[in-house]
Model the fold of this input.
Amino acid sequence: MFTGIIEEVGQVVVFTQEASAWKLQLKANHTPKAVALGDSVAVNGCCLTVTRFDATGLWFDVLEETRRLTNFSQLNVGSAVNLELSLRHDGRIGGHFVTGHIDAQGRIEQFEARGKDYYLRVYAPNDFARYLVYKGSIAIDGISLTVAEVDGDFFAVWLIPHTLAATNLKEKRVGDPVNLEFDLLAKYVEKLAPFRKN
Done:
């Protein structure tokens, strides 16, 4: 479980297919010092298990399905990725509950400065549009954000300069894919509502 508050931006060192799995190696300054073998780390919002670490590096095995269903297929050497350690029971929840299970890939349609803030408009696949709620929560590449506009299959969020500076969004461009995780509570309500009628 995560909160969508990015703790560090790491960098891809190696992402290659080997006999047993896709192997992802990241360079990071702070996250490796706080993990143990087998810990969960959200990478661009996707929950991965630490298989190895040292003072400045993290290693993960990545399923083919994970690579296919997320923007991991676009990762190259040097790509910036958002990192978040899993939620501690004695920690604060500054964002919203994020599981690290990516629902779909979105696509950046508009990204521009408006005054001192930044406006980000994203396309979400039609099957997931029902989870988009004005002032609801959304995780984009693992970042907990508030939905500011909903228009069919599109939604928009506003970003403060700090969010841009502290995440990989500063490297994103129109047309880039982003990992989307929709609000967990909305999905449970949808699942349970038919049983209430009975």
User: Anything to note?
Assistant: The mean pLDDT is 94. DSSP finds three helices and twelve strands in the chain.
